[in-house]
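Practice record 12: protein with nicotinamide-adenine-dinucleotide.
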Amino acid sequence: MLVSAFVMLGRVATTAGDELLASALKQLDAAAKALGLDRGMHRFLSMPERTLIVSLPVHRDDGSLEVFTGYRVQHSTGRGPGKGGIRFHPDVTLEEVQGLAMLMTWKCAVTDLPLGGAKGGVAFDPRTFSEKEIQRLTKRYTAAILPIIGPEKDIPAPDVNTDARHMAWIVDTVTMMTGQHSPEVVTGKPVELGGSRGRTEATGRGVAFVTLELLRRMGHGAEGTRVAVQGFGNVGSIAALALAEAGCRIVAISDVTGGYAIPSGIDVREAMEHVKRDPKRTLEGLKGATRISNAELLASDVDVLIPAALEGQINADNAHEVRARMIVEGANGPITAEADRKLTERDITVVPDILANAGGVVVSYFEWVQSRAQFYWELDEVERRLEIYMRRAMDLVLSKSKAYDCTPREAAFIVAVERVASAIEKRGIFP
Ligand code: NAD
């Protein structure tokens, strides 16, 4: 904790960003302790390699000038160029971006991608801006961080409130400023502009692959395994579909309107069609389903529970109600630290977010590879390779968890920290 205290400069964690950074540092501390990591290396890994803070003047549509603050943080480039999304949100702070950049380092390392960790963000509320204003802000931000990004340096991607449109604007800005067509500068692009097939489905499919690998290791077949999924958006619906296709029985799903249970098994494709038809894009009125609350969904009598909605859903108040034997974290941070301890005491296996939802960054890596080669893979090629990366990472994490007699979450950090530290050591500290 000495190192963490140094980085936080004695400040008390007050914002969500402070807490996120403090929690990322705590996880690093635990892995460093388990590995007996050199004190200097531990200290190096607890700090970002590079932090850029930029001020962004942008004209609003009414002609007035506003100035925003943007960040790009590269936590580690020890294993390769930085990789991480760009977030547009009023709560973006330097500490949040630093914590998220560090988590990207571990996520890329645990899945064995030849990439480091980075993150970016601009503090503003995009809901109160027009499309043109957001485009101007994105382009100005890109120009401001251009000195430190690039396919060999740091490759941004979408995150909260940014998507393929923003990535296309970034490609255009870099292309205009360098005079070279530069699709490989970001991932998460529209497919017409060099995006990878299968990127949208990648996180959900990755969640399904690690779940199936866990079942295999537990000696469970997929056939008939009962699964409940919280959140039926991009991650939850695709994970549910892939698991149903593998033979699992999806007995409960939920979204912002509440939970829907069919003990004999939900027809996931039909549920996805239902959401498409619904004017509000929800599961409201799903045929044949019994309405349950989200709290009831989390307490379902199932083998596997997949929280794929929001953070902090399983907490000190409801952890004792969980009946699943296995939890796979589709969302980021769906289990609080206290709940995690309680679940461990009850011998419930949790596959941590940095591994479970890494499918998106794995296919982002494939997109970077394809864009650099200007040669694009078919969907089945993307999925075949994604399965290899996810199952291999899961297998290694479960083996480490046995070897170190620790939880898969601790094991995932151990694998990641060991890989990053080893790469830095092998390169030799410059000069
Ligand atoms: P999404 O917006 O597509 O879907 C979110 C779903 O959660 C929706 O069905 C929504 O109705 C539901 N939801 C919202 N509030 C809820 C509540 N209180 N109870 C139950 N359900 C609720 O988002 P997504 O892209 O599927 O992301 C889900 C989670 O996965 C987030 O934590 C995100 O950070 C994480 N994640 C996403 C990706 C990705 O590639 N999309 C990658 C890594 C992690």
